[in-house]
């Protein structure tokens, strides 16, 4: 079995205040798939992602990354396999400079010297942030922080990339750069997003969460063409699939 596979079985999560965030969530993601997890605010998307590399502990259920169950003993190896980009980049940036933040993970993996320097430079360049390498993270804009946070994860060379709202806070140019980057990432990609046009462009498969339950799991085009399902889950079609305001015809010819 590929170590890129993600299997979630009967996942439940109840917060200490009694809020039920996830209810019996199950799915299997294969090597190389690009999968979006969408839903209205409060559907449980961020909670679900934070289980995939052990930032949250499930109330019930199991998570396997390849052949390995996610446990306290396997957590270090799984976190090297599953790279997580949080919705708020301030949760990931804590070092004096951007270079130090991006170097932190590889340094702990044993990289040093020119190899470490090259890894950091390559990852910052991939997200269009090479010019930020010597700046303190707290001097960056929100979009700049997001790009650097993505670079910190790419620097670990993960086999599975997990991203929570990756385009939030990005200007149009940075968004296009990110889409190009994600298209080039050949391994497994899992992300949440309210940017449904990005989902339509990047993901052949979409999972809808609604009130902590999986309401749909299937081809993205089919899901976005199911008006009743979208309405039930408080979602709308991507702008690119909606009718043109001028002529009333579908923009994509669907």
Question: What distinguishing features does this structure have?
Answer:
254 residues; Rossmann fold; six-stranded mixed β-sheet; globular
Question: What would you say this structure looks like, in words?
Answer:
The mean pLDDT is 90. Helices cover 32% and strands 23% of the residues. It is globular and about 55 Å long. Strand 9 and strand 10 form a beta hairpin. The protein is an alpha/beta fold and 254 residues long. It has a domain at 6-93 and 158-241: P-loop containing nucleotide triphosphate hydrolases (Rossmann fold), CATH 3.40.50.300. Strands 6-7-8-3-9-10 form a six-stranded mixed beta sheet.
> Could you tell me the radius of gyration in angstroms?
19 Å
Number of strands: 10
Main β-sheet, in a few words? Answer: 6 strands, mixed
Query: What coarse outline follows from CA principal-axis ratios?
Result: globular
Assigned CATH architecture of the domain at 6-93 and 158-241: 3-Layer(aba) Sandwich
Write the layout of secondary structure elements.
Layout: E1 6-14, E2 20-29, E3 34-38, H1 45-49, E4 60-65, E5 68-69, H2 75-81, E6 82-85, H3 98-108, H4 113-126, H5 142-154, E7 160-164, H6 172-184, E8 188-192, H7 196-202, E9 205-210, E10 213-219, H8 220-224, H9 227-232
Parallel strand pairs: 3-8, 3-9, 6-7, 7-8
Antiparallel strand pairs: 1-2, 1-4, 4-5, 9-10
